[in-house]
Amino acid sequence: EPDVTIVSGLKDMVVFEGDDVTFRCQVSHENARDVEWKLQDVALQNNEMNEISVEKGKVHTLTLRKVTEQDIGTVAFRVGPHTSTA
Prior knowledge:
Blueprint: E1 6-8, E2 21-27, E3 35-39, E4 42-43, E5 50-55, E6 59-64, E7 75-79, E8 82-85
Antiparallel strand pairs: 1-2, 2-6, 3-4, 3-7, 5-6, 7-8
């Protein structure tokens, strides 16, 4: 299995309370395994508040819905040993 690396990392975002925000991270290979999203060191699951998806096989996205002040902090995307934060 090829070593999947991060081609395009996360970018810092500023949003207003109640808005949605989307983070994108592009990886080098499709169907990457061992992928994880975190907010403030807490692993995120796909649910009604966090939409986790993959576009075009290589672009992993995380949408945080209706953010609140408690959502302030570091978002991290990890694939294997590689990490990007915003």
